Amino acid sequence: MKNNTIFILVVLWMLVMPVKVDAREVTSFNSGWEFKKGPFSKDAMQTAQKWNADWQEVAIPHTWNADDMQKKVSAFYEGVGYYRKKCTFSESMAGKRVFLRFEGVGSCAEVYVNGYLVGTHKGAYSAFVCEIGSQVKFGKENEILVKADNASRPDVIPTNHILFGVYGGIYRPVWLVITEPCNIVVNDYASSGVYITQKNVSKKSAEVTVKVKVDNATLVPASMELENAVYDRNGRLVKKHSQSFELTPQGVQNYSSCFKLSNPHLWQGREDPYLYKVVSRLVQNGRVIDEVVQPLGLRKYEAVAGKGFFLNGKKYPMYGVTRHQDWWELGSALTNKEHDFDLAQIMDIGATTVRFAHYQQSEYLYSRCDTLGLVIWAEIPFVNRVTGQEWDNTHQQMRELVRQSFNHPSIYVWGIHNEVYHPHGYTAALTQSIHDLCKLEDPDRYTVSVNGYGHADHPVNQNADIQGMNRYFGWYEKKIKDIKPWIEKMEKEYPWQRLMLTEYGADANINHQTEILGDALNWTSPFYPETFQTKTHEYQWSIIAQHPYIIASYLWNMFDFAVPTSKRGSMAARNMKGMMTFDRKIKKDSYFWYKANWSKEPVLYLTQRRNALREKKETSVTVYSNIGTPKVYLNGQDLADVRKGYTDVHYIFDKVVLNEGKNVLKTVVSYQGKEYEDEIEWNYNGECNREADFFEHKTEHGSW
Q1: For a 10 Å CB count at each end of the chain, is N or C smaller?
Q2: Model pTM?
Q3: Rounded Cα distance, 523 and 507, in Å
């Protein structure tokens, strides 16, 4: 275990921390920035006056929407903001290649060096690279200026801020990359320049191909040697291949090495996320002039219609959550600390797979999933609406996602779109085209598109390998228990379909509580009781667990997140379907439901602790326990007549009679020589009714 931990730390350090490898230097470029937010007047004199005043010192990552996108409805600034940084590049860099690599700018960017445009980019969530050496004054002060603009526009996805807000600014890290004139390509859609594919993976052998893209920025051919080497977790050399060639200056050249590994150690998800590493070195005149390190996890993914998901030939449970990246009072301007916290909660709840929705997320996050063994879904922000003008940008963002994330063994599928409909013909054609692009770029992974309807023959369906469906029974449509006949109907009518339940759940405002619940809640009302969310997940997970036809399911959402254009459940700018609150401080009851069902860690949990003011004298008590049948005591008296609920961890005590005033509930289980307990307080002060607005929406979740 100690060696495993050391290897993980070394690989992560190599992948995401500043590294100097001979001629390549990768250093942080996040300090010393100033910021100015618009809007700017169209009048030149007024603009000039504002331009010269009131610059604010900031550190990257930074967003100007951390406050206004989270607290009021449609009261956030979308538009232009400027960043500038003055810096001196050493004279020793002259003759080298100089790049700035931006991990994320929301959402459109223009980059200037000393007044000259050096690059542009459209899209908030993918990285991009600008080569700036030709405009740098070495040994003198230079000014870097970045114009960021997060105004929604019809030619850049997402085309609006409806499902989630696109936070403006340089909200992910910036890196300064220095290489020799000949290098492993830096500006191939901001990828690593190294592409690792694997075939015929089994415990007996695995075939690995390492393709490296090499660039020559000089005017003459150069004699080169390329070495690709595979190392195991302990740093021992497994295989090495070298080849010599004349590197032409005419365009980027591709060179490949093929390896056959005998008796490989497979990457087996959370059970054993074993990683090799691939080191690609470019050598000139006996000197390593460039080096790139990438992870290698040997695995085989199979999504089999009607049977489930298989990892390396073994049935693998796809316990899925979804994650939006924004945090309360931080927006999307996160550090690795926040990413690590979110991953720790995802691991703690027992999830095995994550849908990172609805856009490309942090490179660091994907790398951590490699080391943690999470099987993940990565997607682009083609969501909610089409305009007819986003075709080119959608292709660009998918190509960036695939190339930048190509070597992460944790990624099993590329997400193409989420709930995009009208016009059907255009949407279907664009989805098919993106699927074809994915297969051209990466034929070994699946693709998926997501619909809000419960039938496979919708006009925009069947244009990807996997069909995802978002179903919110009891919330946006029908009743909680209608999930069961829907699944059974799908099993019967579409047995050939690779189907995933890609969103399900209900909102929960933890300040809203009631024990009087129906089977469908009017989501347009201002009352979103946490207990209704709990009821929804208790039943619906139990049905999902019984049906391997659902290859994977992804509850919506792991964390509450900002929706800046709406007010729901008495809360402005918030989607409250999370298992945890937006500030990450409170785990809702539903969190412990899934942890008890999914995790191997001991769980003993009394539900409804925030529903402390009881409405009924005679009530029921629910306990989640994955460590055996619990004993429950009310005011010191043992409760009898426990019954099983929907799954083996679900225990219910009926006809519990409360005392007037304060009541103390305590549950106890002895397990493997240790006693576990949980305790809550309820108060009963007479019959009352906070009954929610129950209303069944007859139509399906989506919109034709």
Answers
A1: N
A2: 0.95
A3: 8
Beta strands in 73-189 (DSSP E): 80-88, 97-102, 108-113, 116-122, 128-131, 141-149, 174-179, 182-184
What whole-number distance in Å separates Cα of residue 679 and Cα of residue 31?
A: 48
User: From CA 459, how far away is CA 470, in angstroms rounded?
Assistant: 16
Q: Is the pLDDT of residue 333 over 70?
A: yes
Which is nearest to 81 in space by CA: 95, 65, 102?
A: 65
- Averaged over 638-649, what is the pLDDT? 96
Question: Which amino acid belongs to residue 622?
Answer: T
CA angle (108, 113, 115) in 5-degree steps: 95
Task: List the beta bridge partners of residue 112.
Answer: 117, 145
Terminal-to-terminal C-alpha distance of the chain = 52
Task: Decide: 295 and 407 in contact? Cβ < 8 Å.
Answer: yes
* Tens digits of residue pLDDT in 492-530: 999 999 999 999 999 999 999 999 999 999 999 999 999
Give the C-alpha separation, 625 to 297, whole Å: 35
Closest alpha carbon to 170 in 100, 217, 229, 254: 100
> Could you give the CA distance from residue 101 to residue 82 in angstroms, rounded to a whole number?
17
Work out whether the CA dihedral 629, 634, 638, 641 comes out positive or negative: negative
The total of other beta-carbon atoms located within 10 Å of residue 338's CB is 19
Beta bridge partners of 473: 477
Per-residue pLDDT tens over the stretch 43-94: 655 666 678 888 999 999 999 999 999 999 999 999 999 999 999 999 999 9
- Taking the alpha carbons of 386, 388, 389, 394 in that order, is the dihedral positive or negative? positive
Residues listed for the chain: 704
Task: Please give the structure tokens belonging to residue 637.
Answer: 């008296």
Cα dist from 412 to 23, 374, 491, whole Å: 34, 10, 24
Q: Position 691: which residue type?
A: E
Q: Which residue shows structure tokens 């010393």?
A: 32
250: left (phi over 0), alpha (psi -120 to 50) or beta: beta
Between the alpha carbon of residue 511 and those of residues 209, 407, 453, 558, 588, the distances in Å are 54, 44, 31, 18, 11
Contacts of 481 (CB under 8 A, 6+ apart): 473, 474, 519, 539
Residue 273's DSSP bridge partners are 267
Peptide bond connecting 443 to the previous residue in cis, omega within 30 degrees of 0: no
Q: Where are the beta strands (DSSP E) in 285-405?
A: 287-296, 301-304, 308-311, 314-315, 319-323, 353-356, 375-379
- Compute and round to an integer the Cα radius of gyration of the chain: 27
Contacts of 517 (CB under 8 A, 6+ apart): 529, 531, 532, 535, 692
Residue type, 568: R
Cα angle for residues 537, 626, 267 (degrees, 5° grid): 85
> What integer is the mean pLDDT of 435-447?
98
336 SS3 class = helix
Q: Which two tokens stand for residue 339?
A: 């990413």
- Tokens representing 196? 């690792």
Tokens matching residue 569: 């459940």
Q: At 16, is the pLDDT very low, low, confident or very high (cuts 50, 70, 90)?
A: very low
**What does the angle CA 691 – CA 693 – CA 694 come to, to the nearest 5 degrees?**
100
Nearest to 534 by CA among 595, 484, 589: 589
Catalytic sites, residue numbers: 419
Q: Encode 222-291 in three state secondary structure.
A: EEEEEEEEEECCCCCEEEEEEEEEEECCCCCEEEEEEEEEECCCCEEHHHEECCEEEEEEEEECCEEEEE
451-477 burial: b if 16+ Cβ within 10 Å, else e: bbbbebebbbbebbbbbbbbbbbbbbb
